[in-house]
Amino acid sequence: MEVAIRRGNRDDLPQVHALIRELAEFERAPQEVTNTLEDMELDGFGENPIYKFFVAESAEGIVGIALYYIGYSTWKGKMLFLEDLIVTEKLRRAGIGRKLFKAVAQEAKEIRAKRFRWQVLEWNEPAIAFYKKIGASLDGEWFNCNMTEEQIQQYVG
Fold first, then answer.
1. In sequence order, what are the residues at sequence separation of 6 or more whose Cβ sits closer than 8 angstroms to the Cβ of residue 73?
2. Which of 83, 141, 151, 154 lies in disulfide reach of 147, CB 3.0 to 4.6 Å?
């Protein structure tokens, strides 16, 4: 199957959102997806876009995405954070994820990012094996910290 990697655009969002829902099912948390198409359109293509993405496209449509954003490290400077890399389940292990990952790594190089960061679930052994194979550092020292929208409201008042 021939797959092309390209920058994502507004018209891709319905298929992108479907892949996000598929990923949530894979990660055993479908109820956690509260992001909507409207949110994604505003946040990615509104007045102040805060994310970008690449898509993997075949004759069947979009079969994978890599969504990322730019962050800033006080110690290092500009960094690129890969939020999610998703390949539809039936096409996993076909090299599509590797192509998407490479496109994001190339973007990090082009913007002169000092860091390229991402997360992986501890039980996602195929992804962990891939990251180790390419020489990435897997950091067990840091904890992930999060607050939900409700927790933010409670904290701020």
1. 79, 114, 115
2. 151
